[in-house]
Design brief:
Largest sheet of chain B: none
Number of strands of chain B: 0
Distance between the termini of chain A: 80 Å
Order of helices and strands of chain B: HHHHHHHH
Strand order of the largest sheet of chain A: 3-2-1-4
CATH superfamily of the largest domain in chain A: Methylated DNA-protein cysteine methyltransferase domain
CATH topology of the largest domain in chain A: Double Stranded RNA Binding Domain
Shape of chain B: globular
Number of domains of chain A: 2
CATH class of the largest domain in chain A: Alpha Beta
Radius of gyration of chain A: 22 Å
Number of helices of chain A: 8
Structural class of chain A: alpha/beta
CATH topology of chain B: Butyryl-CoA Dehydrogenase, subunit A, domain 3
Number of strands of chain A: 6
Helix content of chain A: 40-55%
Largest sheet of chain A: 4 strands, mixed
CATH class of chain B: Mainly Alpha
Helix content of chain B: 55-70%
Shape of chain A: elongated
CATH architecture of the largest domain in chain A: 2-Layer Sandwich
Radius of gyration of chain B: 17 Å
CATH architecture of chain B: Up-down Bundle
Oligomer: heterodimer
Strand content of chain A: 5-15%
Distance between the termini of chain B: 57 Å
Structural class of chain B: mainly alpha
Strand content of chain B: under 5%
Order of helices and strands of chain A: HHEEEHEHHEHHEH
Largest interface: A-B, 38 and 47 residues
């Protein structure tokens, strides 16, 4: 006959996975109702690998391209925005849908609210100017520096674009080197070139 | 939106914290409280954790932290149940059969133990926590945690004979 301790220990093998998952789903609903969800995120497939999108109640706050460490991105958001973060494919479905359409060549501009809180000052002005470059057009670091109010700060403009938290939606791939070179891209220069070709930009 | 926190505290996204600990919390509550209170206590535990989360000063032992909250929430629901003074034979105990059906009679006896002994026995056997951590959750020493488990087992044996 099993000892008392052995019998009690059997409880550790009792399956609670499903019940705990249901409880967690119910809890997340209650958290949303009480406005305790500050960030939602989702992983979405794209022709350029898996993207990570994060949104606050204000709008999309970050889009992380394939090749970046997703855990690092999420921990960064937890400390810079809020650790009250939940994964929800459903909540980010409208953004995912627009990205799908864009990658299929069927969408020329994004219609999603943005949360700019990860960018400040000159960098923010550069990125807002970048957001206005139309589909199929390209610009230069120099021109973006000028639009942001300092024509001489070409390098700073390049840095601002390199730190773009919302690539693709804020189309930093449309900004090229002043002399005509591609310049860098967080997702790799090949991706930058592929996006520009898809958009039909004159290269 | 919460205030910016000190850079030294690195907290995982709440989703990761929830995924890591939801089963342990559920195990504790299923063993500690009556079946129809488990789901509410579970939700209250994580809501309370979520409210306090951005202000956490120390992110190193999140399991003990959430288990402490679960213990407190389970005690609260237990107390409010006593206040309501519902006759016990009216309580639907059926769902507890689902969690650990084969040993339900024994776990019904566990739920009759004094609070600290009951918590220590559940944490030790249903969750599988080390004594040191049980002590941290019950705000006592590791030795006192061990003692609570021993006393609990002794009482259980007494109840069974």
């Amino acid at each position: 006959m099993a000892s008392l301790e052995e019998t009690l220990s059997r409880a550790r093998r009792a399956s609670v996975g499903e019940a705990a998952a249901q409880g967690a789903a119910r809890f997340v609903k209650a958290a949303e109702k009480e406005n305790l969800v500050d960030v939602v995120f989702a992983r979405v497939d794209s022709p350029f690998g898996e993207l990570l999108i994060a949104s606050t109640p204000k709008g999309v706050v970050q889009l992380s391209l394939a090749g970046y460490d997703q855990n690092e991105t999420l921990e960064g958001l937890a400390s810079k925005v809020s650790p009250r973060m939940f994964e929800s494919a459903k909540r980010l479905d409208p953004v995912r849908k627009q990205l799908d359409e864009y990658f299929a060549g069927k969408r020329l501009s994004f219609d999603v609210p943005l949360d700019w809180q990860l960018s400040h000052g000159f960098a923010l002005r550069v990125l807002k100017a970048t957001a206005r470059i139309p589909y199929g057009k390209v610009s230069t670091y120099r021109e973006m520096a000028e639009k942001a109010g300092n024509v001489r700060a070409t390098r700073a403009a390049g840095n601002a674009l390199g730190g773009n938290a919302i690539p693709i939606i804020v189309p930093c791939h449309r900004v090229l080197r002043t002399g005509g070179g591609f310049g860098g891209y967080g997702g790799g220069v090949a991706m930058k070139e592929a996006l520009l070709r898809m958009e039909g930009a004159v290269l | 939106m919460p205030r910016a926190r000190s850079k030294s505290v690195r907290l995982p996204p709440f989703q990761a914290f929830l995924d890591d600990h939801r089963e342990e919390v559920y195990r504790f509550l299923a063993g500690f409280t009556v079946a129809h209170e488990v789901d509410d206590a579970f939700q209250e535990t994580f809501l309370s954790a979520l409210r306090a989360y951005p202000e956490l000063r120390n992110g190193t032992n999140l399991r003990s932290w959430v288990m402490t909250i679960a213990y407190r929430k389970a005690m609260d629901s237990h107390r409010s149940r006593s206040r309501r003074a519902v006759p016990t034979d009216d309580l639907p105990e059926q769902p507890s059969r689902a969690w650990n059906a084969e040993d339900h009679a024994l776990w019904d006896l566990v739920r009759a133990l004094p609070d600290k002994q009951r918590a220590a026995v559940v944490q030790r056997y249903a969750v599988g926590l080390p004594y040191k951590e049980i002590g941290a959750i019950l705000e006592c020493s590791e030795e006192a945690a061990r003692q609570n488990v021993r006393e609990g087992l002794k009482k259980l044996k007494g109840m069974m004979t």
